[in-house]
Specification:
The complex is a heterodimer. By secondary structure, chain A is an alpha+beta fold. Chain A has helices at 8-11, 54-65, 109-119, and strands at 29-36, 44-51, 73-78. Chain A is elongated, with a radius of gyration of 24 Å. Chain B is mainly alpha-helical. Chain B is globular and about 55 Å long. Classes of the chains: A alpha+beta, B mainly alpha. The A-B interface holds A 28, 49-53, 55-56, 59-60, 62-64, 67 and B 34-37, 39-40, 43, 134, 137-138, 141, 145.
């Protein structure tokens, strides 16, 4: 017999060999979780939770991402509602790091400052 | 009965409820219906143990022994928890309904205790109220979703409520010390708590198409507060005290 997984929970469910087609109801949807550490701060993305509905997503988000440390507010958003760029288009970002003329560091002013400091 | 002893027994009843139910609910760890719920339920079980520790620490400040000593070395009849918390976790509907019924009572109790004249208890109550509020939110949502779920989920919850409601009423068992606690403004009394509790749970159950058994069938399972327990407590204590008993002097 081929061992499908070392996880006993998977090993005992007697899965057929090869990829398994999941019908939509076999899994809960996922929600993206954002937490806020201080009122007024930006909410930060911290991960995902599986949940059957919005209210439970909030409960589980609290338990997974806010049971330790400081948190004052949580957002959950259905993952399917997130609109993302495609990885096929990664090239649109490609030369962004090279545009140093767009950064303050691109100006030669530091040389002047250092020269001035050196004189003192 | 002196005021001092009445207060201590009251704290023991509270601490023991949370210790035993916290231990029971932690038995779900790794076995919960799915990962996120497993985590949530285990987390709340740990909260309960934390609450019992805080209560044992208040007892220690009143001259009782170290929290570990009282939690792990007392005999069965010395525990003053209500009988409801002793019962095995059963299937998930059982644990969920117990979580719903017990935590609503715990939340309201702590809310009342924020006004207690026992200052450390009032402070603790103010601190943990928010924690238990989340437990109540969790329980309410499950009851709502399963009550309004399908025929099986509704039937399971209703059956569990019917079969265990008298045990839940045992949470509010009174003792001879009751009047003294009320007079001394430590706690406004189990009877008042029970009324608040009924007013809180009935509308939530109704929204979930569930109801309490008729009043004529109410018959609280009492005894726990006097140290009279069911057959389920001793095996739990044996397991809970097992590691501690190997070397009571060990440093952790």
């Amino acid at each position: 017999m081929k061992i499908l997984s070392l996880d006993p929970r998977i090993a005992r469910v007697d899965l057929p060999e090869g990829p398994v087609e999941l019908s939509p109801l076999d899994e809960f949807q996922t929600y993206e979780v954002f937490h806020q550490k201080k009122r007024g701060d930006q909410h930060e993305h911290v991960g995902i939770v599986h949940a059957p509905n919005d209210e439970m997503a909030l409960l589980f988000a609290k338990d997974q991402y806010a049971r330790r440390g400081i948190c004052v507010n949580i957002w959950v958003v259905k993952s399917e509602n997130v609109i993302a760029s495609s990885y096929d288009d990664t090239d649109i970002f490609l030369i962004a790091p090279e545009k140093i003329y767009r950064e303050a560091g691109g100006y030669k002013v530091m040389d002047k400052i250092n020269k001035f400091k050196g004189k003192k | 009965m002196s005021y001092d002893i009445s207060l201590k027994n009251f704290l023991y009843r509270l601490a023991d409820d949370h210790l035993i139910l916290g231990h029971r609910n932690s038995e779900w760890t790794g076995l919960g219906p799915f990962l996120e719920e497993d985590l949530a339920f285990s987390n709340m079980a740990q909260d309960k143990l934390g609450q019992s520790l805080a209560l044992f620490e208040i007892l220690q400040s009143l001259g009782e022994q170290h929290p570990d000593t009282v939690a792990f070395t007392r005999k069965e009849e010395e525990y003053q928890c209500c009988q409801y918390v002793e019962y095995p976790i059963g299937e998930y509907d059982y644990s969920l309904i117990r979580h719903f019924l017990f935590d609503h009572a715990a939340y309201l109790r702590f809310e009342m205790l924020t006004q207690s004249r026992c200052e450390p208890l009032a402070k603790l109550a103010a601190k943990v109220k928010g924690e238990i509020k989340y437990h109540v939110m969790h329980a309410n949502i499950w009851v709502d979703k399963l009550g309004n779920g399908n025929e099986e989920s509704r039937h399971r919850l209703q059956t569990t409520i019917n079969e265990n409601f008298n045990l839940a009423l045992g949470i509010f068992e009174t003792t001879d010390e009751e009047q003294e606690l009320i007079n001394e403004k430590i706690f406004e009394g189990e009877e008042m708590l029970k009324e608040k509790w009924l007013a809180a749970i009935e509308p939530i159950l109704a929204k979930a198409t569930l109801k309490l058994p008729p009043r004529t069938q109410w018959d609280a399972a009492v005894g726990g507060r006097k140290g009279i327990h069911t057959v389920h407590l001793q095996p739990l204590l044996t397991e809970m005290q097992e590691v501690f008993a190997i070397d009571p002097k060990a440093e952790w």
